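User: I'm writing a tutorial on reading structure tokens. Could you give me a worked example: one chain, its sequence, then its tokens, then a sentence or two explaining what the tokens reveal?
Assistant: Sure. Here is the example chain.
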Amino acid sequence: MAERSAVLEGLRAYRMIAGMWVRSGMTYRVSFVVTLFGNVVMTGLDFVGILLMFSQVDELAGWSLPEVAFLYAASVTSFGLAHLAAGSMQQLGSRIRDGSFDVLLVRPVPVLAQVGGDRFSLRRLGRIAQGGAVLGWALVAADIDWTVPKVLLVPLMVVSGAAIFVAVFVAGAAFQIYAQDAAEVQNAFTYGGTTMLQYPPAVFGKDLVRGVTFVLPLAFVNWVPAAHVLGRPYPLALPGWVAFASPLVAAGCCALAGLAWRTGLRSYRSVGS
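And here are its predicted structure tokens:
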């Protein structure tokens, strides 16, 4: 009961902090619209690169353009949702170095909620909108033999993928408590991870695919469930039932990330500034 109460308190605090930043960001609406449009354009350049590549080839490792677009869109949309919710956590290192992290520790509000809601920005919706548009096109253009499980798997994949990326953000923030200057290391797994997942697993070496399947299970963001939806071979010849394991993987990642965060927070020593 106490743990549930703490979670509800954290969510309430997160909502209030995020709402404060939303109201602040909407003060200058023209600036918000311009920034949002710019975000859509900038994030869309990655897909333009894929389109340019397919202007020279018909397939990539046996995958057609709509199939690669499906991978791209699932990865970008999931990451966009996670970045919207927890993207500010990548700035934790700078807060620790300038001493402002100590201020969060003395407030009667869960620290994770404060870090997650800090500088919440609706302009990050641009990535989600762009990824969602590509996803809609890919679902129509790809040759998919639709069944009820496949229809249900698409939104389940996106939501579970977002939860996995949120876990990576939280775990990265916990690591920054120790390292204090590790934002680029965290970016390698967040931004780097979503870029890698935009391409078929056959493009990469088997050792890398094993690593992102069994060690840091980013493969469950889109590679594994997308294989079922598109009727493609599963990475590493995994059994068919793993296509529906993304929610379990996401829950496990979030639990481990929460443990890492609590451990890091208990071991924190003020920088003294």
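What the tokens reveal: The chain has twelve helices and no strands. Residues 148-179 form the longest helix (32 residues).
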